[in-house]
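Why do we bother with holo predictions? Because pocket geometry can differ from the apo form. Keep that in mind while you read this record for 6-O-phosphono-beta-D-fructofuranose.
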Amino acid sequence: MSVKRVAITTGGGDCPGLNAVIRAVVTVGKERFGWEILGVEDALSGLIDLDYRGPRGNRWLELEDVRGLLSRGGTILGTSNRSDPFRFVDGARETDVSDRVMENFAKLGLDAMVSIGGDGSMAIAQKLIAKGMKIVGVPKTIDNDLGATDQTFGFDTAIGIATEALDRIRDTADSHDRVMLVEVMGRNAGWIALHAGIAGGADAILIPEIPYRAEAVADMIVARRASGKNYSIIVVAEGAKPQGGDVSQLEARLGEMPRLMGAAHRVAAALEDHVGSAMRVTVLGHIQRGGSPSTFDRVLATRYGVLAAQLVHEEQFGKMAALRNGAIVAVDIAEAVARPHLVDPSSQIMNQARALGISFGE
Ligand code: F6P
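The structure, written out:
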């Protein structure tokens, strides 16, 4: 069988670079392989229900649709983290509508799909592959927590945004002699906190991989003050948790992961008794997900898109484009979802951060 009709979808939380992948897949798919390419609306929503009509609609993509997309944040296809066909929310319950997705895929005459997503989307892809769908994956997420790849696209842009925020926070922290806590995203991985924290000169970085002791952070603040340093900056990953405690999160809504919320405020409350000076909390939130992708992410996303198109053409399904030692290679989607990519507390970068005097609340 030679591939003629290919679907493309963006799933889960958006991140800078999604449009750059779409542009690369459409350009290579059309110009080199002569495909028809269907942009599926809002993750898999447009395949779960062919009458689904969000603001965009499923649409056949032409070269002019992807012109000028390289620098645009977000995704022209829309995305959703509520379109898992195996846990589809129908009224007050979750149902499995994956057979319907398979039928709709066949109805549209589609041969294969490029799925751009993070761990959730790759896990869904893996289950659809088991049902016979031909899928190639592209790893996205600002969290950088997907296995089998050295880096996901979106991460570099997010740490750039978080670092710029820390630079701004430093000025006002210094003026007011304050302890400033900055909460960054990342779910259960500390990559954003670690990289932005090092780049932004943080005094403490609290990551999910190392449950913290508030007393250790307080000791650092007191020691800095004793040596004439009037302010301190603490980066808190949203998934950070105290020793013996759990993450700070809201109750999960049907069909969704629980939302992490309140980690930095909880650290501030725990420090209150130990630290005399004023404290302020800034939660960066979705600012980290928007805007134009960095140069690194544009190149990475583009290279991922080109390889994904080639893999579909070569009918190498069940594979995901990945970055390994500077090269873009094909790995098994199964490998990507087998284990999350987390910060290793005894890695070189962590020990170098410790050598600088950065506290991890240990
Ligand atoms: O996975 C990306 C991410 O931004 C996480 O860092 C964060 O926990 C989550 O998505 C937020 O999701 P939502 O956009 O649904 O609030």
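DSSP finds eleven helices and 13 strands in the chain.
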